[in-house]
């Protein structure tokens, strides 16, 4: 008797375990397929969609935006969250499990190529027409992504300490750095994070090549000797001058780098317009952004950091809803307002006039309006190379004073060929 | 030992323990500082103790909801793990045949696999279960609990297995002679003897499930389902960390487990005292 | 004995957990083995090309992988010793019956409650800013400098952080073991005139053998699999000198997008670790039996 009762209890435990997830079986996946009721109506009820993106800084603003979207149109967008460096891993794993988001963001170049089979072709969508010239995310001549905005980087400097008008080439930059050292000021500061250590600054010599993408392909195959390319020689000279005259970048984090700039201990940092937010807590100083004057370069590196793409494996209804949302984002007052004021993005579409940009973003916007820019060639580097190969090599260069600039370039070729395999 | 000596040593132990906790000091002081203050000196005390970053973190994380979600997932996971793992381990010890050895070995061996190499195939298996068995294992708390049980099974079985071996069989044999069923023997005789190891398993499992980030981040997508760990993502940009709110958020996430631990550890001692039978 | 519990009961008791475990851990692991024989970038729609054992031959020529294996071994050996030594000392102290034992027990366990990446970030403040300040004020800058910039010290820093986190964890298990030693045995030993050292080596340690088995295994598997702290404290640097196994595999899979090669590395890693830890378990288990 007792035996049976226990057996029954045990069995129920098992059943609970196995069906623990079964109780709400009918209301989950593909909400989209079910709730697209009244078709053909003007104020059409769209399917619920999901949105996944990598910029943590705008996460909260985005959540507020979709709340307003629901108020205005009655349609639902679910915003997923992810810590910055875990984004791609999560995206990839979720796509593998057919749990992909409807809209997601990708960086142009290698990352965009990686997920290329997932993009809905936006070429004929009405909002594709709003994209500013050359700012679309394109694959094989098709527009597949809406630019989230424009970003730029270069030498971010303290106007009280540095005057870019006097520095137009590598040799004068080196001289200025030597002078800063004599004055006890950290001249040009990099920081230990992979992109801020090497990823961004090495963009300039690549972007200055006639055809950066073709150049990178040749380098991948090991057909280029970097030490024979003038822009790279000068780049290595600048790196050498930083090592000789500035605080070791490996001792500096992004936080201390910007703190040193804000407190006048550092004159110049190699950074982008996004770094302005880091200065918020400090007493205000006048800062500007200037080109890295390698080989006489007089242009900022400006490009779109990422684009919104629509997942073509989503249901038809969801793709339709995603199109409606993107259109609303770039045409409604709420959407436009949010992009500029809450996201703090420099718009890359013709429908939005920027207002009240911060000083760094203003300079980037001016440069892009004037066409006075070089592209982000780094987006076309082999996948993972900046974090896995270039940053370790650069840290070796900064920690090991006996490595010459020539050896640095030579090692650069070696690790590049390995990573590109 | 004299009373005075005991007092001196006791104080010394606490001082050493506090020194051991200096990283927690860093966490606490920096949850009160602005970015500029932190830049000036990481180790110094804050200029003022205002709880604005705590308030900010609570609001951003949607603390009450995510706290409830974490509680649900953790409590359910731990209960299932304790019930199932203790039963499994007991049977494996008491029937020590080839099958038991294989099962035990696979539980233990898979504890060595780094999760990062399992996550992609795991998600594919879950997708398969959802598509063909129509069980919503993805994007539900129950699905996460199910996977947690699988991942925490190894260590729990391992711990129970080691402990059960030291329990004399005599009591069980007597109970069987008295006409107790196998189920009765386990729950009435054996399980109460396992109290102290159960509390240990519970402590370790609560922490594992409370602190987990990677698995929940893959399984749970919707905002309303987020656990306490998932909701801290707001503070971690690709390059920038909102230090004050991140530290405040961290403090908030560990307080519940600290309370749980200081309550639970009493039972380890009590359990042992009660289980002096052996 | 085994006759007493029938086959049906056997299955009822073991299968629920084992089935879940099979679905969640074993099957994905087997799929992972399959992936180690193919060339694939990890995107579902991309082609999967069967390459046989190519991935396995490639990885043995991968110097960085071999280096990371060696780093992992060094790290694990140091971590194993320091975690268990400290955990055992903690456990002995807090069970010795001092007034503050309960407080100390909670305090010593607290590091274990801080999970994941942020732990590494906090320690980074200590090894960079903290050590610099101590070095500057005390003048002992041969010890107190930025440890994370020196390959050997950076690995040591990882050991310290791991120890800090895990010592409390093993302490809990050692406490359970120590509490299990009956007071009568200890009293009897005292009456017989055994001094502290004798009580330790002749009674406590042998009776703690099951706890040793468990703690050594847990530390070993934890140390071999370490990832979060590795990422946030040193990120493998300086110059790959602290890139451990799990990080190397993760970078291969998600950094370079070589899914098959990464899985092959994981399999090789698993086999090595399994051999080491199972040897360890067999050795310590044998000692338990002798006792």
Question: What would you note in describing this structure?
Answer:
- The complex is a heterotrimer of chains A (421), B (278) and C (291).
- Chain A has two domains: 47-150 and 305-350, 3-Layer(aba) Sandwich (D-Maltodextrin-Binding Protein, domain 2), CATH 3.40.190.10; 153-303 and 368-420, Periplasmic binding protein-like II (D-Maltodextrin-Binding Protein, domain 2).
- Chain A is 43% helix and 13% strand.
- Chain A is built from 16 helices and twelve strands.
- Chain A has helices at 2-19, 31-34, 59-73, 87-96, 110-114, 170-183, 194-199, 203-207, 212-220, 230-245, 254-262, 316-331, 333-342, 359-370, 385-399, 405-420, and strands spanning 49-52, 77-79, 103-106, 137-139, 142-147, 151-158, 186-189, 266-272, 287-290, 300-303, 307-310, 373-374.
- Chain A has a six-stranded mixed β-sheet with strand order 2-1-3-11-5-4. In chain A, strands 6, 7, 8, 9, 10 and 12 form a six-stranded mixed β-sheet that branches.
- Chain A is globular and about 70 Å long.
- The two termini of chain B are 29 Å apart.
- Chain C has a single domain (53-290), classed as MetI-like (MetI-like fold, Orthogonal Bundle), CATH 1.10.3720.10.
- A two-stranded antiparallel ribbon of chain C has the order 1-2.
- In chain C, helix 2 (54-60) packs across helix 12.
- Chain C is globular, with a radius of gyration of 23 Å.
- Chains in contact: A-B, A-C, B-C.
- The interface between A and C is medium-sized, with 30 and 24 residues.
């Amino acid at each position: 008797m007792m035996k049976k009762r226990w057996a029954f209890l045990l069995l129920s435990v098992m059943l609970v375990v196995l069906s623990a997830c079964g109780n709400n079986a009918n209301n989950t996946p593909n909400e989209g397929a079910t709730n697209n009721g009244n078709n053909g109506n003007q104020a059409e009820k769209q399917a619920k969609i999901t949105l996944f993106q990598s910029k943590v800084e705008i996460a909260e603003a985005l959540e507020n935006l979709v709340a307003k979207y629901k108020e205005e149109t009655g349609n639902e967008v679910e915003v997923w969250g992810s810590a910055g460096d875990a984004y791609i891993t999560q995206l990839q794993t979720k796509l593998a499990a057919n749990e992909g988001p409807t809209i997601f963001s990708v960086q142009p170049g290698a990352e965009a190529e990686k997920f290329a089979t997932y993009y809905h072709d936006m070429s004929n969508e009405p909002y594709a027409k709003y994209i500013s010239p050359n700012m679309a995310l394109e694959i094989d001549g098709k527009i597949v992504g809406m630019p989230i905005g424009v970003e730029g980087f270069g030498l971010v400097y303290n106007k009280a300490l540095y005057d870019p008008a006097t520095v137009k080439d590598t040799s004068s930059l080196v001289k200025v750095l030597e002078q800063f050292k004599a004055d006890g000021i950290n001249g040009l500061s990099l920081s230990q994070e992979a992109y801020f250590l090497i990823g961004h600054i090495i963009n300039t010599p690549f972007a200055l090549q006639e055809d950066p993408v073709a150049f990178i392909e040749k380098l991948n195959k090991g057909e280029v000797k970097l030490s024979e390319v003038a822009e790279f020689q000068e780049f290595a000279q600048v790196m050498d001058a930083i090592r000789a005259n500035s605080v070791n970048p490996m001792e500096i984090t992004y936080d201390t780098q910007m703190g040193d700039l804000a407190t006048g201990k550092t004159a110049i940092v190699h950074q982008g317009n996004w770094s302005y937010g880091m200065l918020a807590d400090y007493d205000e100083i006048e800062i500007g952004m200037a080109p890295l004057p390698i080989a006489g370069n007089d242009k900022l590196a400006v490009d779109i950091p990422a684009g919104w793409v629509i997942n073509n494996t989503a249901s038809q209804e969801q793709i339709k809803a995603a199109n409606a949302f993107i259109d609303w984002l770039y045409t409604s007052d709420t959407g436009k307002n949010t992009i500029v004021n809450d996201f703090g993005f420099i718009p890359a579409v013709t429908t939005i006039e920027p207002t009240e940009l911060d000083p760094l973003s203003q300079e980037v916007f001016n440069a892009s309006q004037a066409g006075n820019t070089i592209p982000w060639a780094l987006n076309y580097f082999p996948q993972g190379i900046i974090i896995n190969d270039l940053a370790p090599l650069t840290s070796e260069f900064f920690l090991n004073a006996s490595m010459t600039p020539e050896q640095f370039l030579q090692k650069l070729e070696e690790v590049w060929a390995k990573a590109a395999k | 030992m004299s009373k005075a000596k005991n007092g001196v040593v006791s104080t010394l132990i606490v001082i050493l323990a506090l020194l051991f906790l200096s990283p927690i000091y860093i966490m606490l002081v920096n949850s009160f500082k602005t970015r500029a203050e932190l830049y000036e000196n990481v180790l110094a005390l804050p200029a003022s103790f205002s709880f604005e970053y705590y308030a900010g973190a609570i609001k951003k994380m949607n603390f009450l909801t995510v706290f409830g979600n974490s509680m649900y997932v953790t409590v359910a996971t731990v209960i299932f793990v304790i019930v199932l793992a203790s039963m499994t381990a007991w049977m494996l010890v008491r029937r020590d045949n080839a099958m038991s050895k294989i099962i035990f070995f696979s539980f233990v061996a898979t504890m060595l696999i780094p999760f990062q190499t399992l996550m992609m195939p795991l998600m594919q298996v879950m997708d398969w279960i959802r598509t063909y068995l129509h069980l919503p294992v993805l994007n539900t708390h129950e699905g996460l609990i199910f996977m947690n049980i699988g991942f925490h099974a190894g260590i729990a079985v391992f711990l129970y297995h080691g402990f059960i071996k030291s329990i004399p069989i005599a009591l069980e044999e007597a109970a069987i002679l008295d006409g107790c069923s196998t189920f009765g023997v386990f729950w009435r005789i054996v399980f109460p003897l396992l109290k102290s190891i159960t509390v240990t398993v519970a402590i370790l499992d609560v922490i594992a499930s409370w602190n987990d980030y990677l698995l929940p981040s893959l399984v749970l997508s919707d905002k309303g389902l987020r656990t306490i760990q998932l909701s801290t993502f707001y503070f971690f940009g690709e390059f920038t960390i909102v230090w004050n709110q991140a530290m405040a958020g961290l403090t908030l996430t560990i307080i519940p487990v600290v309370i749980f631990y200081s309550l639970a550890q009493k039972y380890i001692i009590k359990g042992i005292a009660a289980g002096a039978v052996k | 004995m085994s006759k007493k519990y029938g086959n049906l009961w056997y299955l009822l008791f073991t299968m629920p957990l084992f089935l879940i475990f099979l679905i969640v851990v074993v099957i994905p692991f087997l799929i992972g083995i399959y992936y180690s024989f193919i060339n694939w970038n990890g995107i579902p729609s991309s082609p999967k090309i069967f390459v046989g054992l190519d991935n396995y031959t490639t990885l043995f020529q991968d110097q960085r992988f071999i280096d990371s294996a060696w780093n992992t071994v060094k790290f694990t050996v140091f971590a194993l010793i320091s975690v268990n030594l400290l955990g055992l000392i903690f456990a002995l102290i807090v069970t010795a019956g001092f007034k503050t034992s309960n407080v100390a027990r909670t305090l010593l366990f607290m590091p274990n409650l801080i999970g994941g990446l942020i732990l590494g970030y906090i320690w980074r403040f200590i090894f960079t800013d903290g050590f610099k300040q101590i070095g500057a004020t005390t003048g002992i800058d041969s010890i107190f400098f930025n440890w994370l910039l020196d390959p050997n010290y950076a690995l040591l820093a990882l050991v310290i952080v791991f120890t800090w986190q895990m010592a409390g964890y093993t302490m809990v298990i050692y406490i359970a073991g120590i509490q299990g030693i009956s007071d009568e045995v200890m009293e009897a030993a005292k009456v017989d005139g055994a001094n502290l050292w004798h009580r330790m080596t002749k009674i406590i340690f042998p009776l703690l053998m099951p706890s040793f088995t468990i703690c050594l295994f847990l530390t070993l598997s934890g140390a071999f699999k370490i990832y979060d702290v590795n990422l946030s404290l040193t990120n493998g640097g300086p110059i790959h000198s602290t890139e451990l196994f799990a990080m190397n595999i993760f970078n291969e899979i998600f950094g370079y997008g070589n899914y098959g090669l990464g899985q092959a590395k994981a399999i090789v890693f698993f086999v090595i670790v399994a051999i080491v830890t199972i040897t360890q378990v067999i050795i310590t288990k044998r000692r338990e039996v002798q006792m």
